[in-house]
Write a structure and sequence with these properties.
single chain; about 625 residues; mainly alpha; two-stranded antiparallel ribbon; 6 strands
Length: about 625
């Protein structure tokens, strides 16, 4: 009998392993298909504000081991540059515009595939996991505005963290060590992303591990205070959008507290592996920074000091925050009503509303890749996600709670810098929506008058959703390939795969050719536009720390910047008035008349190519 039972268990385990392998293979294949579909989007545009060059210069300095922070003013930690330098070294991928965009494309698809893996693990539905991949891929399309943006790498780490919380005993042993390591890695990608991950993990631990009541109350209080601390500058300026934004985030925090207080099974936590994982990761990354040419002080400045020096004077959101706030209030009120009264049909109606809100932004943009101007009502998904009853499975309960907390705190990522960050901040609502869909399917099949009818209806709905996903992907890919084929190749060093509009290509190529025809030995670009260093092959003047055009003007950076600009002999200057107006309009550049005078009076032989003007020092 024992032998028979053992054989049965082995067969069952083998069957689960085989199914898991096939599922992982399928999700990976869908991710690979997304790489093909997204290729033209990765190479069809170039933002004149040129964050791409900013990221590329850091990766090149890291790979060359010349110390990125000695040459570039950055608020990003060393985790991403070390990762990028390692990957490109192993794969022999060139660190130029083509290679950087290939890396960005692969990270983009890998993040979407990881979201699909998480949904599959949580719901055990391969169909839902498979649909998550293309929708997540389209949702993260804003990453292609700034190829090399570390946000995709950060979300990949975040989804790895979520997958670990799905495992039994998430807070114990190796699982705890991995969670600590991932949180530290996120801190050393960008400190705000790390803080939000630590906040979400801390909230989940305090809620699910039977800690003392005073500790839970302390964590809850800190969770309520965090959004106020982040948004305090906008609140002090009586910014209405910031106030509405605070309402949205705080409703998410209160939803977490109301739903989880005393409601989860208590599981154990191992603090030592958690701390050890974070400590080991910190040591490895700091040693890696020293290896790539930086010192510990430079890392601390980049990770801790520089990010807190930048404070936006406004959010300048592209979306109507009033509608989002109203949707969030309604979702929270509905959650409270469901918790007070067991209304199955009302709960099912709420869940049925979630998935369409994920499709709305993509449909609103007609298959585009940037859901910035959408209604964004998907922020209201957290209260509905928290209605899921996963308390019978402690690992799923932890995973769901951690996902909800990450959604809430990651909403703060869009402040103080909006733009593409708005799309990044809401990415985790995509896997959340498919998890809520699974809740709906289970409940419909349980409450249907006949289970056969309920099963048929849910299968039909899933088929329709899958067809819509396919249409969105095909429509988007068709549009992107069409645009890519209409554009013309950019014949600059390391940019052969890029196809841009003809006028933009003419301006960039003429600017680079002009610089190369002069006798300059160094190059200054303003504001930002660091891609020209890769295209021209010229270095910056000795001692000058490069920046994106904003941080040059910080009071602490003005003295050294002006000094090295004045000392730079035989230097070419590339300026772009339209980019300068862009930064000025969003009030990101403090006034600095001395710099304007220096860049005007100290350079002559001006030649204009579209928006670009090339000049040269008079000495």
């Amino acid at each position: 009998m024992d032998l028979a039972l053992g054989s049965a268990h082995e067969t069952l385990a083998g069957s689960r392993t085989a199914r898991g392998g096939l599922a992982a293979l399928l999700l990976s294949a869908i991710g690979a298909a997304m790489v093909i579909a997204g290729f033209p989007a990765a190479f069809k545009g170039f933002g004149a504000y040129d964050d791409e060059g900013f990221y590329l210069v850091q990766l090149r300095d890291a790979a060359a081991r010349v110390g990125p922070y000695a040459h570039v003013y950055s608020a990003y930690g060393p985790a991403y540059s070390l990762f990028g330098a390692t990957i490109t070294s192993v794969t022999r991928l060139p660190l130029d515009h083509d290679g950087g965009r290939i890396l960005a494309l692969v990270l983009w698809a890998a993040t979407a595939a990881a979201a699909g893996v998480f949904v599959w693990r949580h719901t055990t539905s391969l169909a839902l996991g498979a649909m998550t991949v293309p929708i997540g891929f389209l949702w993260l399309g804003a990453a292609l505005n700034e190829p090399g943006q570390p946000a995709t790498f950060a979300f990949l780490l975040t989804l790895a963290l979520l997958c670990i919380t799905e495992r039994p005993h998430a807070w114990k042993g190796l699982n705890a060590a991995l969670i600590g390591a991932l949180c530290m890695a996120l801190l050393l990608v960008k400190i705000n992303l790390g803080i939000y991950a630590v906040a979400a993990v801390g909230f989940s631990i305090a809620t699910t591990t039977g800690r003392r009541r005073w500790l839970r109350l302390l964590v809850f209080t800190a969770s309520v205070a965090l959004p106020v601390m982040i948004l305090r500058h906008g609140l002090a300026q009586h910014d209405t959008k910031v106030l509405l934004y605070l309402v949205i985030v705080e409703l998410g925090v209160v939803s977490l507290i109301v739903r989880t207080y005393g409601g989860q099974q208590r599981v154990a936590v191992d603090w030592l592996p958690l701390a050890l994982g974070g400590t080991v990761t910190l040591v490895v990354l700091l040693l890696g920074s020293v290896y790539q040419g930086d010192n510990i002080g430079a890392v601390v400045r980049a990770v801790v000091i520089n990010p807190f020096r930048y404070v936006s004077s406004g959010t300048l959101y592209e979306v109507d925050m009033t509608g989002v706030a109203i949707a969030s209030v309604v979702a929270f009120a509905a959650m409270v009503l469901v918790l007070i009264n067991e209304w199955p049909w009302f709960r099912m109606t709420l869940r049925a509303l979630v998935l369409p809100t994920v499709f709305i932004p993509l449909l609103y943009n007609s298959g585009g890749l940037l859901p910035l101007r959408s209604p964004m009502v998907e922020w209201a998904v957290v209260p509905i996600l928290l209605l899921g009853d996963d308390e019978s499975n402690s690992s799923r309960g932890v995973g769901r709670l951690c996902l909800a907390a990450l959604i809430v705190f990651n909403e703060l990522q869009a402040y103080p810098v909006p733009g593409s960050q708005v799309a990044f901040a809401t990415f985790l609502t995509v896997p959340a929506a498919f998890i809520v869909t699974r809740d709906l399917i289970v409940e419909v099949r349980m409450l249907g008058r006949t289970r056969r009818v309920a099963r048929f209806a849910s299968s039909l709905a899933l088929t329709g959703a899958a067809a819509l996903v396919a249409v969105l992907v095909i429509q988007s890919a068709t549009r992107q390939w069409s645009t890519y084929s209409r554009n013309v190749p950019l014949h600059l060093v390391g940019s052969n795969l890029m196809h841009l509009p003809p006028l933009q290509v003419d301006g960039l190529e003429a600017t680079v050719n002009d610089v190369r025809s002069r006798s300059c030995t160094s190059l200054v670009t303003y504001p930002g536009m660091l891609s020209f260093y890769a295209w021209t092959g010229l270095p910056a003047p000795p001692g000058l720390v490069l920046a994106d055009g904003i941080n040059w003007r910080l009071p602490g950076n003005r003295g050294p910047t002006e000094k090295y600009l004045r000392l730079a002999p035989n230097t070419c200057l590339i300026r772009n008035a339209s980019v300068q107006r862009f930064w000025t309009q969003i009030q990101a550049i403090p006034r600095w008349p001395e710099l304007e005078h220096l860049l005007t009076a100290g350079y002559t032989r001006n030649t204009e190519y579209g928006n670009y003007v090339v000049s040269q020092t008079t000495h």
